[in-house]
Amino acid sequence: xxxxxxxxxxxxEQKPHLGVWDCKIMSKTPQxxxxxxxxxxxxxxxxxxxxxxxPYWVQEEKFLRTLDIAKERGDTLITFDDxxxxxxxxxxxxxIERGLPGVFFPxxxxxxxxxxxxxxxxKSLADHGMVVGTHGHMHLDWAKVPxxxxxxxxQDSLEIIEExxxxxxxxAAFPFGSFDRRVLxxxxxxxxxxxxxxSRGKTNLANFLIHRTSIREVTDLDWMFQSLDxxxxxxxxxxxxxxxxxxxxxxx
Length: 252
Description:
The protein has helices at 60-73, 86-98, 119-127, 147-165, 181-189, 221-230, 233-248, and strands at residues 35-39, 41-42, 57-58, 76-82, 102-106, 131-132, 171-173, 194-196, 209-210, 213-214. By secondary structure, it is α/β, with parallel strands linked by helices. It has one domain: Alpha-Beta Barrel (TIM Barrel). The strands form three sheets. The protein has a five-stranded parallel β-sheet with strand order 6-5-4-1-10, covered by helices on one side. It has a three-stranded parallel β-sheet with strand order 7-8-9, with no helix packed on it. The protein has a two-stranded parallel ribbon with strand order 2-3. The radius of gyration is 17 Å and the shape is globular.
């Protein structure tokens, strides 16, 4: 199924995109969520795992503890990048067991390859009430490639996801967490309504740009949550200014 190009402007009445709030197992209200975490691989890394990717693999015990904390707090959303096999083998069953939603951002160019989700497994995530967004097709840095290449990567990934799921894809996570105003503009052209960064800190899920905190094996969970809870004053202002500049000013 060929996805059309950039969407035409529609100034009629719009139904708000709820994303994760449409999840069948969602029990919390959007207003309570202000922390969004991102995982990559869970469990034991494969033998051929790149050295640069190893820090992003989190042992299953640590992942499960994070879910338990998230369930107890009631203000934390869990997301996943890359579309690795651990998404369905470990993450999805654990989320369902705890009644938690999840948002999954696969690389569509890797579907069916060793260590990655198959098309059937991606469909299974959605069938079990999880939200599926895009992480791009070939894991390009959207902020560093020409517009034509960036938008082809976005469009290719959206076409594949929508063909598999049979529903529009409205959410995206930046590859490498990298973005600027050009990336945001490209995503909006293709109908994306929520874009997830790795900018750390608390966030507002009513916004287009959603900030996430990345979890690594070395992450001290207790310290991380305490740090996020205490974020205020000058630290919060500095982080907000930095995010604003990335989203609105031309790249240097």
